[in-house]
Structure of Phosphate-specific transport system accessory protein PhoU:
Amino acid sequence: MPVYPTHTMKAFDDELDRLNQTLGRMGGLAETQLGTAVQAMLTRDEALAAQVISGDDQVDGAEDHINEQVVRLLALRQPVADDLRLVMSALRVASALERIADHATSTAHRVAVLNQAPMVPAVKSVARLGWLVRDLLKEALDAFMSRDADRALKVWERDEEVDDLYSSLFRELLTYMMEDPRHIAPCTHLQFIAKNLERVGDHATNLAEATWFVVHGTPLSANRPKKDMSSYTMAEPRHLSPQDQSPE
Amino acid sequence: MPVYPTHTMKAFDDELDRLNQTLGRMGGLAETQLGTAVQAMLTRDEALAAQVISGDDQVDGAEDHINEQVVRLLALRQPVADDLRLVMSALRVASALERIADHATSTAHRVAVLNQAPMVPAVKSVARLGWLVRDLLKEALDAFMSRDADRALKVWERDEEVDDLYSSLFRELLTYMMEDPRHIAPCTHLQFIAKNLERVGDHATNLAEATWFVVHGTPLSANRPKKDMSSYTMAEPRHLSPQDQSPE
């Protein structure tokens, strides 16, 4: 690692601090967008959903800002080793947060549509998945901001919970659709929302991996638990027992 | 713009060439993954789908390789202005290609599931969307590799076609689901595949925007046509006229 004069190190540290602050703000934004979108869906609140949709630009702006800071840091400070790892992880975190906010916006877009049909009870189960991934996102962000690899590992291990809940939700929604053709359209939108939320869980996992890599310098993903693939299965009416047909 | 000694410019140009070659290879990979996934869905060919799934690592590896090349270029050559724009666009293009390949893999994962049920005719309409976005991706890649902004603009304008086709497909799939409960599970998977393909169209649009930005130095997105939001609408059985109920 090169030896910098003291004032250069100070300037570098200041820029890293600023980058961290932007990341923290962007994380808070993404978390709020997600929570607000789930709340809007659950309470059928279109004004709240509109707030999420119009807030997406702010998240995109934060990502652009982080990318600019990173380019400046790379070009002017030429960080190596640990510092380079830290700077590059900022890009990865910003990209994950932008995609999380996209999923929140996509969820918000469907609120007005869902309101055109009577409420299906399954919306509560979808919200449950929403709260789970919001909690995981919050934990993942806190772990990243405090460079706490063990806390990140715990988030990473909990992605299985998300996959399990998503899989049972996928099946639950299919049973509602099979019960009554009037449920098909709203439940199709709920299927998309559930998929969005499951993806948020994946991105929280990515944040955890970035934290681990920043702290330890080795990838966490090598020993990732196998993903549950049961939502990639077919559930036909004849395969469903009577109690499966009215879950919730 | 700084004046480099000749040998430095030569080294920079060589590295840019290498970066471009990696991008070209990655683009070819993503295009193949997409085409193969659609073909596997249409012909119910699980071996072909497995090929797509196992090929995803290669695409991820290509993105990592591009990211490393970009970091090295930024740190060692400190490009400014046009050169910096070109180097940063590589990150954007690589990220779009990685996400396109992800959508192809996600499509491939559903082939084995779709094969558990009899074929629904709507699969042909989904494949039509697949061929459209594959053609747009090919055009977008050619435009980027040849730095042809006008060609990129044409791709960008055609994203509306994708949105229109996706919206009618969304409704078509709903009608199949309403016709027969046995269609619900396979058509839910087809809804996800259609959404994946529509997203590929968005990423092809991103490639076109990156090309425009590299050539002109100004963003193209300012005057983007309004997105069709009709797939965010509710289609209830009572809203469908008889001919709508059996499209295809």
Remarks:
- The domain at 6-245 of chain A is CATH 1.20.58.220 (Methane Monooxygenase Hydroxylase; Chain G, domain 1).
- Chain A has one domain: 6-245.
- Residues 40 and 48 of chain A are 5 Å apart (CA to CA).
- Chain A is about 80% helix and 0% strand.
